[in-house]
Amino acid sequence: MAYRQFEVESTEEQPERAVLVGVDRGDLDWPLEESLAELERLVNTAGAEVVGSISQRMETPNPRTFIGPGKADELAALVQRLDVNLVVFDDELTPSQQSNLEKLLGKPVKVIDRTALILDIFALHATTKEGRLQVRLAQNQYLYPRLRGMWSHLASNRMGGGVGSRFGEGESQLEVDRRLVRKRISRIRNELKDVAQSRATQRKSRKDGSIFRIALAGYTNAGKSSLMNRLTGAQVLAYDKLFATLDSTTRRLELDAGPCVTLTDTVGFIQKLPTSLVESFHSTLEEIREADLILLVVDTSSPQRDQQVKAVREVLGQIEAAKIETVLVYNKIDLCGEGELAHLAQLEPEAAFVSAVTGEGSQELLERITQAVLARDPLVEVLIPYAQGRFVQMAHERAHVEHEEYREDGTFMRLRIPAPVLPSFAPFATGKDALAYAHVGKSDEELDEMAGI
Known about the structure:
alpha/beta, six-stranded mixed beta sheet, four-stranded parallel beta sheet, 13 strands, disordered N terminus
């Protein structure tokens, strides 16, 4: 007796099929084709599959459907033909535009924009409590103005006219949900304040301890985490994915010369970065604002590297970090030709060129960092009496000792002293340093007394 064979259906979840939609408004800084290519990478990172795209050139987006009516009908036909269940717009949609498009395309097609997509990716990659709180805050801020559309199906089921019909079931549910979201936003903000205070305390201890702080900033997937691993020997997560790193990580960086240095890896930036994310990640981005030096890491192999640098500098401006000393670091030079690198070196003579993968250029970068560290701290000569030996120990712990010798009247040292520590050594300064630094840490009355007033 022959047995009939049956096909076993796969239980593996199939990726969503997505169509991308973009509008070209003549922005030459970031061509639409390149922006859509980046959007496709974002969609892939979120776990969906791009099966098509559609675009339109127009000066101003349509207030009802973002794209024009004819192009919207073309999109509906494309969605039907390709069996699409996800439509992703390259720009942020208003709640009404999103609602109108979902009505036009029908269920089960989801319509989202770049902001919602980035929020979804952030939710996937957030691992620490702070990271998850920051993502949840941004998600709820994004959700709040879009609640009306979620209850429109209830509003359409209102019964009759007359008294009571002006407050439909959907409207009352809408107000309840708005209240819940507002409470949720308030609660998350309070939790983030507690986390931010803890982070601020850690930053303060590093600052008071005269530690030179370096922050890695750059476009997402520029190789910041890989560079941190190369420079510090850390084992920070480093994947070839967009937004692989969300939670800032700080590691000690050992230099041949100079005081203690920390290196902090931060969240990557992207063009059209949602404002809500910049606000939500305030405490994480504070690591950049509080830095003594920023290493702006660039993917040298990217065709959009110039636009990416511009996008990062714009975000640095938003968080008031544009005035901090910055070194441009071109990473992934192992993927570029010598001619291209020589041309870049002519355009950016002050930039550093490295490969986090091969290690090429990393020693030169460390020397650049050392120069920046030493340039911050003044060179001071001190003579510490033997009875004050604890200051010799402090010098070794909190300053950089360039020279040390024992004399009859005490320990002579030539030090690079960070500004926060300088008042402690001012009484021991010798020669011209005694005149230059004698006023450090003194009150107005003490200065008057020293001057004989």
